[in-house]
Write a structure and sequence with these properties.
59% of the residues lie in helices and 13% in strands. The chain is an alpha+beta fold. The protein has one domain: Multidrug-efflux Transporter Regulator, Chain: A, Domain 2 (Orthogonal Bundle). Strands 1-3-2 form a 3-stranded antiparallel sheet.
């Protein structure tokens, strides 16, 4: 099971200001949050780590956008593998 990180925790790993961080989310350079409630969101820790590692290795913005699309696709199929087993 993947831990969920709230915004302040994510920003310790992805050191941008809150506004700049949400611009990256909007622009597809960081995964969209998982909604926990009406005013509460979080990000899977594995997704945060994947983006940080991609940045460290020097991935381009286009490569990051591709990675974000892959991460979003994995979210949609995450529970399906267990159900099929």
């Amino acid at each position: 099971m993947d831990a969920l990180l709230r915004t302040p925790e994510v920003l310790t790993w992805y050191p941008k200001g809150k506004s700049a961080f949400y611009v990256d989310v909007r622009d597809g350079l960081f995964p969209a949050p998982v909604r926990l409630g009406l005013r509460s969101v979080a990000w899977p820790a594995s997704e945060v780590e994947a983006i940080v590692q991609a940045r460290i290795r020097g991935a381009t913005d286009a490569e990051i956008r591709d990675l974000v699309r892959e991460l979003h696709a994995k979210r949609l199929t995450a529970g399906l593998e267990r159900e099929a087993a």
